[in-house]
């Protein structure tokens, strides 16, 4: 069973009297344990596709099954729960709460999922240990390097044991050393069986994935990666 399956997905925006077809019949399957990169020029529909994959927005038409759930016509409340519990988000800007210690940031999705506090704390600490930051649990974001902050964000993404890790330009804000650090961690997570979808405009970053999906003018072309690591 695929972790995600998009079938003939369309997204149409009304821009005044004009309709913009941001996605025009996208088909995409991502199977459990796959590592897929999505690339495409500005305006091609990448953000629209990522928002639909991440259940941040819904398609205008077509099918979307995520982790066995038909999410295409789900209510906003149900989508919010699916988003929190089945998808681990990693963003370019880390999106950490600056006043909160690392472990408090990591426990947040469990808090939304109404997990009890002792279990939240334990799972947050375990997740930080998994990304190599056991000794940084009580640091605040501004006491950590950019690469470490992104590791905290990845620990937060993992804490619910999600079906999918969705990483939107996760290295866009990092220097080359931290970029390698974060890409190495994604490689490890993939090797451990995680399903990862990475959105990037950088070819070298995309080539770390097993498969590159290119978006052009609201349609996709799927290419195997020759030099997969
Ligand atoms: P990308 O992320 O590849 O730059 P987007 O998904 O942001 O592409 O945009 C795809 C197309 O949809 C573009 O033509 C863009 O102008 C249009 N678009 C995106 N969001 C909206 C919106 N909220 N309203 C109207 N048009 C939009
Ligand atoms: P980008 O800069 O790549 O567009 P943003 O950081 O603006 O990404 O986030 C995109 C959207 O995701 C925003 O609407 C934000 O509120 C939402 N978002 C951020 N973190 C989470 C989360 N953990 N769960 C669900 N939605 C989130």
Describe this structure in words.
Keywords: ATP-binding, Nucleotide-binding, Transport. GO terms for molecular function: ATP binding. Pfam families: ABC_tran. It comes from Propioniciclava soli. This is ABC transporter ATP-binding protein. This protein has a 6-stranded mixed sheet, sandwiched between helices. It has a 4-stranded antiparallel sheet with strand order 2-1-4-5, with helices on one face. The longest helix is centred in the last third of the chain and has 16 residues, at 176-191. It has 7 helices and 10 strands. It has helices at residues 46-53, 76-86, 102-112, 117-130, 146-158, 176-191, 203-206; strands spanning 2-15, 18-31, 35-39, 61-66, 69-70, 87-91, 164-168, 196-199, 211-216, 219-224. The chain is of the alpha/beta class. The mean pLDDT is 95. The protein is globular and about 50 Å long. Bound molecules: adenosine-5'-diphosphate (2 copies). One adenosine-5'-diphosphate is lined by residues 56, 83-84, 89, 91-93, 95, 168.
Features:
single chain; 229 residues; alpha/beta; 6-stranded mixed β-sheet; 4-stranded antiparallel β-sheet; 29% strand; globular; binds adenosine-5'-diphosphate
Task: Provide a concise account of the structure shown.
The protein has 229 residues and is α/β, with parallel strands linked by helices.
Write the layout of secondary structure elements.
Blueprint: E1 2-15, E2 18-31, E3 35-39, H1 46-53, E4 61-66, E5 69-70, H2 76-86, E6 87-91, H3 102-112, H4 117-130, H5 146-158, E7 164-168, H6 176-191, E8 196-199, H7 203-206, E9 211-216, E10 219-224
Parallel strand pairs: 3-8, 3-9, 6-7, 7-8
Antiparallel strand pairs: 1-2, 1-4, 4-5, 9-10
Helix pairs in contact: 3-4, 3-5, 4-5, 5-6
This protein binds adenosine-5'-diphosphate (ADP) (2 copies).
């Amino acid at each position: 069973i695929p972790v995600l399956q998009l079938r003939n997905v369309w997204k149409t925006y009304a821009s005044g009297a004009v309709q913009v077809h941001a996605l025009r019949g996208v088909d995409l399957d991502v199977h459990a344990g796959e590592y897929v990169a999505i690339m495409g020029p500005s305006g091609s529909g990448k953000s629209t596709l990522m928002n639909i994959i991440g259940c941040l927005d819904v398609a205008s038409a077509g099918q979307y099954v995520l982790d066995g759930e038909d999410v295409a016509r789900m209510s906003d409340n149900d989508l919010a729960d699916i988003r929190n519990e089945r998808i681990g988000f990693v963003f370019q800007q880390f999106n950490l709460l600056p006043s909160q210690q690392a472990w408090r940031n990591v426990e947040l999705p469990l808090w939304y999922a109404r997990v009890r506090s002792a279990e939240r704390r334990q799972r947050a600490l375990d997740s930080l240990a998994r990304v190599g930051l056991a000794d940084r649990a009580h640091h605040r974001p501004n006491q950590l390097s950019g690469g470490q902050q992104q590791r905290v964000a990845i620990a937060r993404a993992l804490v619910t044991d999600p079906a999918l890790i969705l990483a939107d330009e996760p290295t866009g804000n990092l220097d080359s050393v931290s970029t390698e650090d974060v890409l190495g961690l994604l490689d490890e997570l993939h090797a451990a069986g995680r399903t990862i979808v990475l959105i990037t405009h950088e070819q070298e970053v995309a080539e770390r994935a097993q498969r590159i999906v290119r978006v052009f003018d609201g349609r996709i072309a799927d290419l195997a990666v020759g030099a997969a690591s």
